[in-house]
Specification:
Pfam families: DoxX (PF07681). The protein has 6 helices and no strands. By secondary structure, the chain is an all-alpha fold. Helix 1 packs across helix 5.
Amino acid sequence: MTRPVDSGVIFIARLALSVLFLWSGVMKLLGYAGFVGYLQATGVPFVQVGAPVAVAVEVLGGVFLVLGFKIRPLGLFMAAYCIVTAVLGHDFWNVTDAAMQRDMVIHFCKNVGMAGGFLLLYVTGAGGISLDGARAPRGGRGLR
């Protein structure tokens, strides 16, 4: 069982992670043609499948984070998603322009850091301020 302060901190962490995904997913949706063009220009495979999947993952993942719904499986899934998008979308090792390479390194590391945050959510669960917490049986042991 988590302490109230732990649940509050986990809630803030979920919101902090959700901001990036909700913003990014909505911006990809609003500028969908540009997003698809970017993916094609960077050589991402299966763009016609990957683009709608990326938008759905980011928007739905962001909503699930806010609500605290299915956080443990979401944490594992989003950690993997962050690593895959780091490798496919921020391949700094293929960039020759120094300024662009620096930008790609920053984005790559950001994705790796977010993956770490998602792995922590996998371990902690959603906390008490969540749909998962509201559905958890009371009096159990361990973190919700």
